Amino acid sequence: MYEANPSPKVVPLPELKVKPQRKRAPRPRQILLTNRLIGWLLPVTIIVIWQLAGQADLLNPILLPTPLDIGEELISMLQSGELMRNLGVSVWRVVLGFIFGGSLGIAAGLWVGFSVKAERLINPSLQMLRTLPHLAIAPLFILWLGFGETSKILLIAKGSFFPLYVNTFLGIRSVDNKLFDVARVLEFSRWQMIAKLILPAALPNILLGARLSLGVAWIGLVVAEMMGSSSGIGFIINDARALSLTTVMFVGILIFALAGKLSDSLVFWVEKRLLRWRDNYEGEGGH
Amino acid sequence: MSAPSLIIDQLNRTFASPSGPVHALSQIQLTVKQGEFITLIGPSGCGKSTLLKIVAGLDTEFEGQVHLNGKPILGPGIEKGVIFQEPRLFPWLTVEQNIAANLSLKKPEIKQRVQELIALVRLQGFESSYPRELSGGMAQRVAIARALLRNPEVLLLDEPFGALDAFTRAHMQEVLLDIWQKNRTTMLFVTHDLDEAVFLGERVVIMNPRPGHIREILSIDLPFPRTRTGSSFQELRRLVLQAFEKVDGPAIDPGAGI
């Protein structure tokens, strides 16, 4: 009948003679392009003004070097291989800390999510630890484990743990009870309940947690590398500060910004692919 | 006549509430034959949904006996297919995957059955659509196909078309009758719509509240397909309505499809 028919016959409408509208609605492709470019508007304007102000000698180059100077520094650091080597070290620390802390966070979130007993047992303690700032914990880690890799990775792991823990827990507890009834009627096994109902339903929250965790992992990295390290992007910044090499400091900050954005985009892309089924408001003027 | 399939004997259900126990179902006595289409009608609060939940095995805190094909009902299971008021599909699965749910579409026999059911509920072309892309009626048909894939001994429907507009509802009733005539699954259909009860049921069970009990069971001896406008249909409809009017107070909610 009316809705069961996937391809209703389209009756061509007779062509109407209407005056062409003066203002034509922009085509989808144009909207897409504008939407993409609009994010660049603000940073590009600021950089241009910054460069012009620097060239007009309005800025002290020791405090605020011009974008072009920073760009030159970036190229020379890339050519010497110094940047890539330190970036490699930093990325390795973040990835290791994130995987270690994040997987523990998911595991704890699943456990506490499934069991009210586990929630009563460990959730209060974990919530207390959650609010401890990195800077307060870092000296202790260094005291216990020294300046080696372990203390750094542990600090990053500590930061990555909590957003994934909290959001996994929340995701499991917000599964619709009505769908549980359906699963019981359909005779889902215990394993199928977890794999085919709870995990897919909690996935949006888990992915949000992963995104937040990755952000915190980068912050943990900076703290760890600036507290004491002989390699990594944080070390470059700290070292340059001691030598008043402002351009190098800027390059380090720029690298952090890019790496943070890139890892965030990566999770966002995964999210978009895995959550295609969602039916959410996407904001006005979205596509 | 066919053998009895569902036997409900001396069923009582009491809920605890802060203001004392509430008697939701009292002395329910009902025998449903194999392949029979029963509609349950009554005002809200008459316990018809509670009765359905008990038969579904989702509520086991009752007194009395409920047997399906000789076995007591101890919990939910695929032999008792349930269609809820809302479709309750898994939003992250496509139509095809929702029907299969915990069964694997990689098995050719499952895949083929799913295809047949999609054709039966007239959803060809929507196999890979997500629930958000479906209308209410289409989503409810997916839920019906999902239950039918498990070859239930009885299909329990709890006001399944209540949220649909009148045209879609009429269409869905025909789809359901079509399925029933092809599969001969025993149907227990809860509704608060008088026309729906008379149009679908071979017998109409009329329930009343406080406490929920069966007031009358009317046989609708009209051949299928039925027409709503026929004089015998209108006569039977009047009989059901009369059964309600015998009761003191407002027996049926205003706007309950009468």
Automatic annotation (TrEMBL), chain A:
Belongs to the binding-protein-dependent transport system permease family. Residues 83-266 form the ABC transmembrane type-1 domain. Keywords: Cell membrane, Membrane, Transmembrane, Transmembrane helix, Transport. It comes from Paenibacillus shirakamiensis. Its main location: membrane. The lineage of its organism: Bacteria, Bacillati, Bacillota, Bacilli, Bacillales. PANTHER family: ALIPHATIC SULFONATES TRANSPORT PERMEASE PROTEIN SSUC-RELATED, ALKANE SULFONATE ABC TRANSPORTER-RELATED, MEMBRANE SUBUNIT. The chain crosses the membrane at residues 31-53, 91-116, 128-147, 153-172, 216-237, 249-270. It comes from the Bacteria. InterPro entries: MetI-like, MetI-like_sf. It is found in: Cell membrane. This is Sulfonate transport system permease protein. Pfam families: BPD_transp_1. Gene3D superfamilies: MetI-like. It is a multi-pass membrane protein.
From TrEMBL, chain B:
GO terms for molecular function: ATP binding; hydrolase activity. Gene3D superfamilies: P-loop containing nucleotide triphosphate hydrolases. Pfam families: ABC_tran. InterPro entries: AAA+_ATPase, ABC_transporter-like_ATP-bd, ABC_transporter-like_CS, ABC_transporter_ATP-bind, P-loop_NTPase. It is an enzyme of class 3 (hydrolase). It comes from the Bacteria. Keywords: ATP-binding, Hydrolase, Nucleotide-binding, Transport. Its EC number is 3.6.3.-. Residues 6-234 form the ABC transporter domain. PANTHER family: ALIPHATIC SULFONATES IMPORT ATP-BINDING PROTEIN SSUB, TAURINE IMPORT ATP-BINDING PROTEIN-RELATED. This is Sulfonate transport system ATP-binding protein. It comes from Paenibacillus shirakamiensis.
